[in-house]
Design goal:
Thrombin, subunit H, alpha+beta, disordered C terminus, six-stranded antiparallel barrel, 8 strands
Length: about 120
């Protein structure tokens, strides 16, 4: 169900509620920015263009063509040379926006067993 969240009991809730919960749970200040970036899914197919619209230490809000096209887990590439990059997990989707958290667990797993996705291209 695109644009929704799932609560602790496995029930779906609206995108607006998901964004409100996400905003309330932020642990660091979010800064408005506009950074062109790329999303690279685990299958490493053609990257999707996006824009980082605001960012904090723990996550970001991204502008995308269609939120439903963004994989649940992906690498966000912020620089033209492939660095810096962050492993991300989607926490909410609405229209042409997604909210992501920078996933330290995924980053650790990436460093342990997977090559840098950008270096391969």
């Amino acid at each position: 169900m695109s644009g929704s969240g799932i609560d602790a009991d496995g029930r779906f809730f609206s995108p607006d509620k998901a964004m409100a919960i996400y905003a309330e749970n932020r642990k660091s200040v979010r800064r408005q920015v506009y950074i062109r970036a790329k999303l690279i899914g685990r299958d490493q197919t053609t990257p999707l263009d996006c824009a980082v619209l605001d960012i904090s230490e723990g996550g970001a809000r991204l502008g995308v063509q269609a939120a439903q096209d963004v994989p649940q887990e992906f690498t966000l590439v912020l620089g033209a040379n492939g660095h810096p990059y962050r492993r991300c997990r989607v926490v909410w989707r609405k229209d042409a926006h997604v909210g992501v958290v920078f996933d330290r667990t995924l980053a650790s797993r990436l460093l342990e067993c997977e090559p840098d996705p950008v270096a391969e291209n």
